[in-house]
Design a protein that fits this description.
Length: 247
C-alpha cells in the first residue's frame, strides 16, 4: 500500500507526459526512495529511464516496495484535466490507482485500472560514450524542427568545441554548426569525435516535453545508441535511441 501527494498536480502531469511521449505503458517501481520506471517503446529502438525522489512529494508513505503497471495513454488523458492550484493524492486500492485532485473548494477522484505490463526493462544500454554535449533545450527544439523540413533523419556530430547537425532529403540539404560559446551549446567534452544518424520523430518526442530554459545533455559514440537526458524539477529523465543504419 502507498499514499503519495504532490501539492502541484501539474508537475506530475508534466513528468508523465514526458514518459508517455515515448511509451504507451509502463511498470512503475515505488520504494521508500521514490518512483522509477524503465521502458522500451513499442518498436524497441528507444528506451526511457525515469526517476523521481520521495523528497519531491509533500507526502510519501510506502508500506513496502511495490510495482504498478499503467496504461500511459489513459493516465495522460486524466492528467490533462488537471486544473490550476490542484494537489494530487495517489493510492493503490483494489487493483486500481486512485487519483484524487484536490482544489481549494473541490475534489475529483478517478480510479484507473492497473494492467499487466508484458515487457519490462532492467538495464540501460552499456555504451562507453566518446562525446558529451550540453545544449539549451529551446534552440535544440528549433534545430530539430529545421531539419524536419527536409528529412525524417538528422545527423549529430560532436568534435572539439563544436556540435554540428545536418539533414538531407530530396528537396535539399541543411547543415548547422554551433561552437562551444555558452549561448546555445553550453559545453562540449570530446575524447573522440562522434557522429551518428537518428530518427527525427523520436528525438522531437523526447525533447518536446523538456521545460523551456532547461539544458539537455547528449552523450554520443559513433554509430551507437545516443543518451539524451534532462530534468523536470527534481525528476530525471534519460532517453536512449538506436542510430539509423542505412542498408
Amino acid at each position: 500500500m502507498f499514499e503519495i501527494k504532490l501539492d502541484n498536480a501539474r508537475y506530475w502531469r508534466d513528468c508523465i507526459g514526458a514518459i508517455g511521449a515515448l511509451v504507451d505503458e509502463g511498470l512503475f517501481n515505488i520504494t521508500k526512495e521514490g518512483i522509477s520506471l524503465k521502458a522500451m517503446d513499442p518498436s524497441s529502438i528507444s528506451m526511457i529511464a525515469f526517476t523521481i525522489p520521495s523528497k519531491a512529494f509533500s507526502k510519501f508513505t510506502v508500506d513496502k516496495n511495490t510495482t504498478i503497471g499503467l496504461n500511459l495513454e489513459n493516465l495522460n488523458k486524466i492528467l490533462s484535466r488537471t486544473r490550476d492550484d490542484e494537489a494530487l493524492v495517489m493510492k493503490d486500492t483494489d487493483s486500481k490507482l486512485s487519483m484524487e485532485f484536490v482544489g481549494a473548494a473541490s475534489k475529483r477522484k478517478y480510479r484507473l485500472q492497473l494492467i499487466d505490463v508484458k515487457k519490462s526493462v532492467e538495464k540501460e544500454p552499456n555504451v562507453a560514450f566518446d562525446a558529451k554535449v550540453e545544449i539549451s533545450a529551446d534552440p535544440l527544439k528549433d534545430i530539430l524542427k529545421d531539419a524536419s523540413l527536409l528529412s525524417s533523419y538528422i545527423t549529430f556530430k560532436a568534435a572539439k568545441d563544436q556540435f554540428t547537425t545536418s539533414a538531407h532529403g530530396d528537396s535539399g540539404e541543411l547543415e548547422e554548426l554551433h561552437t562551444n560559446d555558452g549561448s546555445v551549446v553550453k559545453k562540449v567534452d570530446v575524447e573522440k569525435n562522434a557522429d551518428a544518424v537518428f530518427n527525427l520523430e523520436f528525438l522531437e518526442n523526447m525533447v518536446g516535453p523538456c521545460p523551456s530554459g532547461n539544458t539537455v545533455s547528449i552523450a554520443m559514440k559513433s554509430n551507437e545508441p545516443l543518451k539524451l537526458s534532462y530534468n523536470i524539477g527534481e525528476s530525471s529523465l534519460s532517453y536512449f535511441l538506436a542510430p539509423y543504419m542505412e542498408d
